[in-house]
Automatic annotation (TrEMBL):
<dbReference type="InterPro" id="IPR041705">
    <property type="entry name" value="PIN_Sll0205"/>
</dbReference>
<dbReference type="InterPro" id="IPR002716">
    <property type="entry name" value="PIN_dom"/>
</dbReference>
<dbReference type="InterPro" id="IPR029060">
    <property type="entry name" value="PIN-like_dom_sf"/>
</dbReference>
<dbReference type="InterPro" id="IPR052919">
    <property type="entry name" value="TA_system_RNase"/>
</dbReference>
<dbReference type="Pfam" id="PF01850">
    <property type="entry name" value="PIN"/>
</dbReference>
<feature type="domain" description="PIN">
    <location>
        <begin position="5"/>
        <end position="119"/>
    </location>
</feature>
<protein>
    <submittedName>
        <fullName>Type II toxin-antitoxin system VapC family toxin</fullName>
    </submittedName>
</protein>
Length: 125
């Protein structure tokens, strides 16, 4: 895999509860030679869920991820179009965006969500 795209839960656990990650996911995400990216869609999803009271985010989570070498991937028009036209294996719009971004950018998706492998993208857990 040329690079790794963090699923939203992976990004959250990487900062707040690394023990919840599989050993393979933790090693891949913390490898200093790895290209690890976080979608702005994940930032939106986690902030939205925090605003709804579904989870609590550390105030420094985004700085902590960037400081650890994680790059931020914007949502581009081609990502949105691809996400809109994916098969309906999964209906979560945030996950569909991550699948589209992984496909468009040639990234592997670091996720515990086994349903996403139905999209024939490289996944790691």
């Amino acid at each position: 895999m040329a690079g790794l795209l963090l699923d939203s839960h992976t990004a959250l656990w990487l900062v707040t509860a690394p023990s919840r990650l599989s050993q393979a996911a933790l090693e891949a995400c913390t490898d200093p030679d790895a290209s690890v990216v976080l979608s702005v869609a994940s930032i939106w999803e986690l902030e939205y869920k925090a605003a709804l009271g579904k989870l609590t985010l550390p105030t420094d989570i985004w700085d902590a991820l960037v400081d650890s070498g994680v790059s931020v991937l914007p949502v581009l028009r081609n990502h949105a179009l691809l996400a809109a036209h994916l098969p309906l294996h999964h209906r979560d719009p945030f996950d569909r965006m991550l699948v589209a971004q992984a496909r468009a950018e040639g990234l592997g998706l670091v996720t515990a969500d086994r349903q996403l492998s139905a999209y024939n993208i490289p996944t790691l857990w």
